Amino acid sequence: MIKRRQFLQYLSAFGTNLFFQISSAWAKSSDKDFFEGSDYIGKTRGGDFQKFYVNFWKTMRRIDGNSWQLEIGGLVKNPTRFSLAEVRSLPLKSQISRLKCVECWSAKAEWAGFHISDIESIVQPDKSSTGVLFHCGDNYQEYLERTSLSHPRTLLAYAMDGNSLSDGHGFPLRVIAPFKYGYKNPKAILKMEYVDGTVSGTWSKIGPYSTDGTILPGYDHPLDRGKVKRRIAGGEIFD
Ligand SMILES: Nc1nc2c(c(=O)[nH]1)N[C@H]1C(S)=C(S)[C@@H](COP(=O)(O)O)O[C@H]1N2
Ligand SMILES: [Mo]
Fold it and tell me: What domains are there in the chain, each with its CATH number?
């Protein structure tokens, strides 16, 4: 039989342990930065992501690349679905470019994917369409004009720095449009809908940000340069 004193010691050790468990669970849920080993991803700035932040307006379940299909519809002659293997077999286009978030930070990577002309030749958008509304895995929506999507520096990317896109950076497919703020670079794309008329995307509805999203003259805090503040002229940041 355990003596009363031993029992109390045991109880207080157990209580302390329980307290630490609860407080660390609390810390995890309150910094909302910790999704490793879970089915979910969200806004992350810690660990490896200090070098390239992950922005998500809300938590999202990871996408399964085996069942994922890129659905293209709306104002097109041939609505089409592409598997990930089909997307990856389109002519490869890659570039080094900087992604600039409207909330100051920026970071650079080598992106690889394809140019939109290589799917437009298949789906054949109607002349009446002005742009594409992207629908994403986290219910994020963003619109880009066809002229911006056909820009030589715009790419539909499935790889980053030589690897398949991580879930955080937009697996399986995202837009890279380096002359527009990050919020015009939708990630985790499920569907591209050709539409007639400008649509305000998720982020320009949440914040005081323009629907157009072209990078304006101002300041930048590049993560790869110790966040040292510098002036930018507007448009793509080439260094
Ligand atoms: N699906 C989706 N795409 C998104 C967002 C989002 O919340 N959901 N955030 C945007 C914003 S505000 C930025 S700055 C960039 C950040 O890209 P990164 O997370 O790869 O750094 O993603 C953009 N694309
Ligand atoms: Mo952003």
Answer: 1-62 (no CATH), 64-232 (3.90.420.10)
- Kindly give the distance from the C-alpha atom of residue 83 to the centroid of ligand 1, in angstroms, as a whole number: 23
- Structure confidence by residue, pLDDT tens digits, 63-100: 999 999 999 999 999 999 999 999 999 999 999 999 99
Q: Take atom 18 of ligand 1 and give the residue whose Cα is closest.
A: 54
String of b and e for 150-171 (b: at least 16 CB within 10 Å)? Answer: ebeebbbbbbbeeeebebbbbb
Q: What DSSP element (H or E) covers 73?
A: strand 69-74
56 lines ligand 1 (CB under 6 A): yes
Reported pTM:
0.87
Measured by CA distance, the residue closest to atom 21 of ligand 1 is 54
